[in-house]
Write a structure and sequence with these properties.
The chain has about 400 residues and is α/β, with parallel strands linked by helices. Helix content is about 35%, strand content about 25%. The protein contains twelve helices and 16 strands. The strands form four sheets. The protein has an eight-stranded mixed β-sheet, with helices on both faces. It has a four-stranded antiparallel β-sheet with strand order 10-12-8-13. The longest helix has 21 residues, at about 265-285.
């Protein structure tokens, strides 16, 4: 595998950084120690143009090429936050923070971008600028949205932006990407139902909130089966249901929480509309009341055609033609890198972590053998977009 030799030379050094980060995971926007370590590493490489507190707690650093006549500025993004899970990997460098672990590999993403930063600062073999983006709160906090709202694209004049995520379902060092939608939108729904409570022995004197909730849960499933083209994708999952407090009282109220995932903005709009109609209409049939709170969270992650195809070519130059799938079937998972791709052309790619425990699993661990592969991809992305 033709990884960059110089990056291979400091593989062990960056691996130690990754494992240090793994032992001290932080959640959401509270990534201050992680950000501080990132800044220390960047300064150690000789990078001085560093801004902290972007999007509340993100770090942005700039490396100038040997020349700057192209007018291009390429952004490379890594996420820094962890998840609220208790690690069970048994690794000697396992998390030291109770109930918190890097179960999605963001420590590895940070390490790969640091490795690329070290190399790019040493060589500066490109014509333009590189903006290194270390982002907080990908796991549900919308850190990318916060950074974009804080002027990430405009303040630093980014003309293209790229993201990468490790993927345990892929062989180590293989890549997968596609043009267009690559990951789904992710919206949150809260349904609140109110019937008429009373004694369980006298249901005829009540409006049974539990029966109403059951009817809503059943009816919602028709959105995917009867409102959407079978060749299109939508997921409506109702994951948290709560009503009542004992076995002989029909509850007055209840709630249902869930998520909606789609790959098409029009289907997203239709799903929100149909949910409201089904929730309110079904409750009305039973004489109850129901309200829907629909919170749009992460939009569809949409790769721009030219950057996506260039990313695939770069991946092939590293892994080989047979190790890159450029027609990936999109994932119904979600990514807040979508906000950056809404604001700027670019592409998001998956790189194989090997057949490890899955993401968001307490046994998961980032594969350190991936560091020089991912870092080489970053370097070649810059050099291809802005050749010296």
């Amino acid at each position: 595998m033709p990884i960059v030799n110089r990056i291979a030379d400091f593989h062990d050094e960056i691996t130690q950084v990754r494992r240090d980060l793994h032992q001290q995971p932080e959640l959401m926007f509270d990534v201050h120690k992680t950000a501080q370590r990132v800044v220390e590493e960047l300064k150690g490489y000789g990078i001085q143009d560093i801004t902290t507190g972007v999007g509340r707690s993100g770090v942005v650093a700039v490396i100038e090429g040997k020349s700057n006549t192209s007018g291009k500025t390429v952004g490379l993004r890594a996420d820094m936050d962890a998840l609220p899970l208790q690690e069970t990997s048994g690794k000697p460098y396992a998390s030291k923070i109770d109930g918190t672990m890097h179960a999605c590999g963001h420590d590895g993403h940070t390490a790969m971008l640091l490795a690329a930063a070290k190399y790019l600062q040493e060589t500066r073999n490109f014509d333009g600028k590189v903006v290194l983006i270390f982002q907080p709160a990908e796991e549900g906090g919308g850190g990318a949205r916060e950074m974009v709202d804080d002027g990430l694209i405009s303040r630093w004049g980014i003309t293209e932006v790229y993201g990468m995520h490790n993927w345990p379902e892929l062989d180590l060092g293989t890549f997968a990407i596609c043009k267009g939608s690559i990951m789904a939108s992710a919206d949150r729904i809260l349904i609140e139902v109110e019937g008429k409570g009373g004694h369980a022995a006298k249901p005829h004197q009540c409006i049974d909130t539990v029966v109403v909730m059951a009817a809503i849960i059943q009816a919602v499933q028709t959105i995917a089966s009867r409102n959407v083209d079978p060749q299109e994708a939508v997921v409506v999952s109702l994951c948290h249901v709560k009503a009542g407090f004992t076995d002989n009282v029909l509850p007055q109220t209840g709630m249902i929480e869930g998520t909606v995932r789609t790959l098409d903005p029009d289907i997203r709009d239709m799903t929100e509309r149909r949910l409201k109609e089904i929730v309110e209409g079904t409750a009305a049939i039973y004489g109850a009341k129901a309200t829907l709170q629909y919170k749009r969270d992460y939009p569809v992650t949409v790769n721009h055609d030219e950057p996506a195809m260039r990313a695939a070519e770069i991946a092939r130059s590293i892994a080989g033609a047979d190790k890159v799938n450029d027609e990936l079937v999109p994932s119904m998972g979600a990514e807040d890198f979508s906000f950056m791709l809404e604001a700027c052309p670019g592409a998001f790619i998956f790189v194989g972590n090997g057949h490890s425990a899955p993401l968001h699993h307490p046994d998961y661990d980032f594969n350190d053998e991936l560091i020089p592969i991912g870092a080489s991809y970053w370097v070649k992305t810059v050099e291809a977009a802005m050749p010296a």
